[in-house]
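Database export, one record per block. Field names are fixed; values are copied verbatim from the stored entry.
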Amino acid sequence: MSPRRTLVAPGYQLLIIVDKPSAYAERYDFIGAINGSQAIACMTLTSADRKSRNIEGVRKEIVNEWIVKTLAPAINRLGINNIYLICDKSQSHNKVNMIQAFKAGQCKSVIDICYMSAASAKYISPLDNPKWHGFKEVILEVNIQ
């Protein structure tokens, strides 16, 4: 099944037709944070980025560094309190380490980190998936109490 939506780097074609698919396709690792319909911060790692930094992919050190240097300052600039961070349950999303990274980035707005199933972020759309509604209901219930 062909993807219905995709992200394309500037200067690249939207759709590439191939006669014989290769065993290796260039991979992009993406970390992003949104607040409703607004992008807060994001990071993309290309093959060249991973090679220059001598990393294989997004690991907890990369996530925590991104939180300290990019996400925490972006959240602080927004001036929003009581933020819940929702991420998939990969090994790189260690709750204790991520909370420490927010503290190191002097961000006190994030009060909890919630998890979806591993690798589920790539399959769901925040616009039409009931999972997001479930998270919203849980978070509203916690805030009311």
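Remark 1: The chain has four helices and four strands.
Remark 2: Helices lie at 47-53, 60-78, 95-104, 130-144.
End of record.
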